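Progress against Task 2.4 (sequence-to-structure conversion) is shown through the following example record, which the project officer requested during the mid-term review.
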Amino acid sequence: MRVKRDQLDDLRVIAVGASAGGVQALSELASRLPPDLPAAVLVVLHLSPHGHSVLPAILSRAGTLPALHAQDGEGLKPGRIYVAPPDHHLLVEDGRLQLSRSAAEHGHRPAIDATFRSAALAYGPRCVGVVLTGNLDDGAAGLAAIKKSGGITVVQDPKDALYPSMPERAIAAVAVDHVLPVADIASLLADLARVTRP
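Structure tokens generated for the chain above:
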């Protein structure tokens, strides 16, 4: 898959959002990412605020990258998947993770838009935003912020999504750079990350 050279320099953060059907899509994505991925991956999945999330364990088993719940103040490291814990927005600033219990967005905390906006502000053109399967439109506005900041925007092909609404809304809201099945998204992200500067 061919990507523009100016999209490849200095990639540092890949922010991924999913909702309904997301565990399956995120597991497939994680299973295809390389163990030496030179970027940090932020994952937001809509969760019950009262539940216990086992998503890090699922993603760690699915692929070679370690996945863990994000900790407030933790420094970002490449080759790791940071999962938003229940009832907390996942934000990033100055290379560190921040957890916030500010107001829910689209009825969700964590919300995908909050993470995407934060990543866009902190990393600009060194950020990739990915919207996967889900209902309604969380992620569309955040993806627009990533696009405006010069980042790369990727959306799961609605025909490949168990729940196509979030991908469809994102595509309607943003001039998306890539619309692909999950298997090809993983390949694209790996290609983008492999050729970034150290």
